[in-house]
Amino acid sequence: MSPPTQIFLDDQDEGLSTETSHPAFVAVSPEWFYDQGDPRSPFGGDDGYDTLRDLEEWYAAGGDDEHAPGRVAALLGDWDLVPEEVWGRDSVGVTAWLDQDESHVRYLHGEVNARIAGALGQFKIIGWIHPALRSWAEEALAMAGLLEVWEGTAFNVEPDEVARRRRAAMAEILAAAPEPVTS
Predict the structure, then answer these.
(1) Residue 116: which residues within 8 A CB-CB, separation 6 or more?
(2) Measured at the alpha carbon of residue 64, what is the angle toward residues 109 and 120, in degrees to the nearest 5?
(3) DSSP annotation string for 152-177
(4) Is the confidence at residue 183, as pLDDT, over 80?
(5) Is 65 helix (H, G, I), strand (E, B) or coil?
(6) How many Cβ atoms sit within 10 Å of the Cβ of residue 175?
(7) Would the N or C end of the chain have less CB density within 10 A of its end CB?
(8) Of 6, 39, 38, 30, which is closest to residue 20 (Cα–Cα)?
(9) Tens digit of pLDDT for each residue in 22-70?
(10) pLDDT value of residue 178
(11) Across the chain, what does the average pLDDT equal?
(12) Is the pLDDT of residue 180 over 90?
């Protein structure tokens, strides 16, 4: 993988903007992607926003594309909220883990948001997504669907149709994002 020729970083005082995003990302990202106050947007909750900012700082300090998944993995490792093996479990196993402690749902939501923000954040910054980050984000979108089902049962809440549509839109954008540029 070659180093990015140009990186796009947000102005911390101005927030998310199409003007500080890679043109390939801007071409496919809906307006709600830039809403920092919307927890359903990739960078709207604390976890997604913090992941994007961490990636931006990492790239600004000379981070390279090949090691971006390691940067996101290190961030999640620092949080140490969800055991890695939870990501490999089937729905019964994930449900059992969620049922163990009421804080687990918040922890898993945080990692879901961070994994999605890691992939879409790299796309926003450099214009493509590393295959590992793409895979993690796809797993996270599936996990978000499982979380919605679990929450519906555990908390007796109706499905969030807006969240479903937004997950579908994020999945389409992940699938359409360019592959890495190789030298």
Answers:
(1) 42, 48, 137, 140, 141, 144, 170
(2) 35
(3) HHHH-----HHHHHHHHHHHHHHHHS
(4) no
(5) helix
(6) 9
(7) C
(8) 6
(9) 999 999 999 999 999 998 999 998 999 999 999 999 999 999 989 999 9
(10) 92
(11) 94
(12) no
Q: Which two tokens stand for residue 106?
A: 């918040």
Task: Determine whether 120 is exposed, middle or buried from the number of CB atoms within 10 Å of its CB (0-12, 13-18, 19+).
Answer: buried
Per-residue exposure over 127-136, b if at least 16 CB sit within 10 Å of its own CB, e if not: bbbbebbbeb
| Cβ proximity of 43 and 121 under 8 Å | yes
Count of CB atoms within 10 A of residue 74's CB? Answer: 13
**Residue 6: both structure tokens together:** 């140009």
Classify the phi-psi angles of 80: left when phi > 0, otherwise alpha if psi is within -120 to 50, otherwise beta: left
Q: How far apart are CA 59 and CA 21, in angstroms?
A: 14
In the numeric block, which tokens belong to residue 116? Answer: 């999605």
Residue of 123, 100, 92 lying closest to 29 (CA atoms): 123
CB 36 within 8 A of CB 49: yes
Q: Can you tell me which residue has the tokens 């981070």?
A: 63
Could you report the per-residue pLDDT of 68-82, keeping only the tens digit for each? Answer: 999 999 999 999 999
